[in-house]
């Protein structure tokens, strides 16, 4: 399962600019150890409100912030879920269900075993995997009146595969509350597009080609799509991996069912959905399934579409999309 980079840095830099008489403002920076870029049309400077929403996500959902709500939950403290925690829990529970259990945010112990979380262990033993699997299962957890019931005391939540997309949604909601209806929000590659751009057209979004780049992110165009009023998320195996002692690549996409890395021909999955939190979780789920199963899942959900990039035996790419995925260049 995809896991985001450690959410350790809230903000490194911030720039706000307005060009000429244009009502569109731009804000860029770093948050949750990734970059963000936001453009919006408003007579008001909403930069402080943007940062406030990002901070809310940090203090609720960051497993790498000891003061966050999710960290307290994972430590077993008697705390209640806030709206953010409950929202991402519900998204995750839904995607776990439609994916047949292939997506599960309680997979954190397995993630750590394989060296993609807090620990740096690779090639865990069979017994360690079996023991960790006992605490995995969001469908055995619940939230009632804010009270969080975990499957076992050792169950830990990590909503990193939803948090960036959900963070985009929170900023979008803030914009709408402030009368701003034309904006593009991008955090670490997850996107919310609403209204129109400066030219009065849909927002043009670039989908990255799956270029191996474990050291740093490389952006190379696979497709350009004109979009509005939706969330977009891409998940892939080509940016976060490491090698075992034999030199074999260990994929960061891990199965919550087997507790082991998943290897399929799918290099990346891009999902378009009504909101970005859902798109984020579904894109991750697609990477944990065969492409046929992922296509069937996406086609079963109203207003959702997807594009897949797969590897072939001769190291070329094949692009497959659902019928309702927009045309692209």
In short:
This protein has 329 residues and is an alpha+beta fold. The protein is built from eight helices and 15 strands. The longest helix has 18 residues, at 160-177.
Q: How does this model look, in words?
A:
There is one protein chain. A hairpin with a 5-residue loop joins strand 14 (305-311) and strand 15. With 329 residues, this protein is α+β, with helices and mostly antiparallel strands. The protein has 8 helices and 15 strands. The strands form 4 sheets. A 9-stranded antiparallel β-sheet has the order 1-2-3-6-7-10-13-14-15, with helices on one face. The protein is globular and about 60 Å long. The protein has helices at residues 47-61, 69-74, 83-98, 108-113, 126-133, 160-177, 276-287, 291-299, and strands spanning 14-18, 24-31, 34-41, 142-144, 147-149, 183-187, 190-194, 203-208, 221-227, 230-236, 241-243, 249-251, 266-273, 305-311, 317-321.
């Amino acid at each position: 399962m995809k896991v985001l980079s450690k959410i350790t840095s809230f903000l490194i830099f911030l720039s706000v600019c307005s060009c000429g008489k244009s009502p569109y403002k731009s804000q860029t920076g770093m948050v949750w150890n990734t970059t963000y870029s936001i453009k919006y049309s408003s007579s008001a400077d909403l930069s402080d409100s943007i940062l406030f929403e990002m901070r809310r996500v940090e203090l609720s959902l960051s497993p790498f912030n000891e003061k966050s709500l999710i960290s307290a939950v994972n430590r077993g403290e008697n705390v209640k879920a806030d709206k953010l925690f409950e929202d991402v829990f519900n998204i995750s529970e839904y995607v776990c269900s439609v994916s047949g259990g292939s997506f599960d945010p309680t997979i954190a112990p397995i993630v750590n075993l394989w060296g993609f979380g807090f620990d740096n262990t690779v090639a865990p033993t069979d017994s360690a995997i079996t023991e960790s699997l006992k605490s995995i299962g969001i469908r055995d957890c619940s939230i009632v009146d804010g009270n969080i019931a975990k499957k076992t005391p050792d169950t830990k939540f990590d909503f990193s595969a939803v948090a960036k997309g959900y963070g985009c949604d929170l900023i979008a909601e803030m914009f709408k509350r402030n009368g701003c209806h034309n904006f593009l929000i991008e955090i670490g590659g997850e996107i919310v597009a609403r209204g129109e751009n400066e030219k009065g057209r849909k927002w043009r979004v670039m989908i990255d080609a799956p270029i191996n780049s474990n050291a740093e992110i490389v952006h190379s165009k696979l497709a350009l799509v004109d979009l509005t009023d939706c969330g977009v998320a891409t998940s892939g195996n080509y940016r976060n991996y490491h090698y075992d002692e034999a030199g074999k690549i260990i994929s960061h996409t891990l199965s919550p069912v087997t507790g082991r890395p998943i290897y399929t021909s799918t290099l990346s999955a891009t999902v378009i959905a009504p909101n970005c939190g859902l798109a984020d979780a579904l894109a991750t789920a697609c990477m944990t399934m065969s492409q046929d199963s992922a296509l069937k899942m996406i086609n079963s959900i109203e207003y959702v579409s997807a594009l897949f990039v797969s590897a072939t035996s001769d190291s070329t790419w094949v692009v497959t999309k659902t019928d309702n995925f927009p045309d692209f260049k």
